Amino acid sequence: MYAIIETGGKQYKVSEGDVIKVEKLNADGKYVFDNVLAVGKDGDFKVGTPKVEGASVEASVIGNGKAKKVIIYKYKPKKTFHKKKGHRQPFTELKIDKING
Q: What does pTM read for this prediction?
């Protein structure tokens, strides 16, 4: 069984037992995704308009972290303009426990 969920403006295809990294959530312990776009099981596939009614995905929070640093470097040739910035995107790591639907 698998489901397609939406969180943080992105869509993820998940199955039970998967470990995924999503945009940072203010959650600890358990988290329930109610925004389920599609559910598939043994050839049966339900697509919501826009959500599947009564479907949910339960996940447990493994932890929070930051991704690798992305370097932003700007310069203008023949000038003395150089600007260097870095950014680390925060994320939440989740383990999918159960798919209801």
A: 0.83
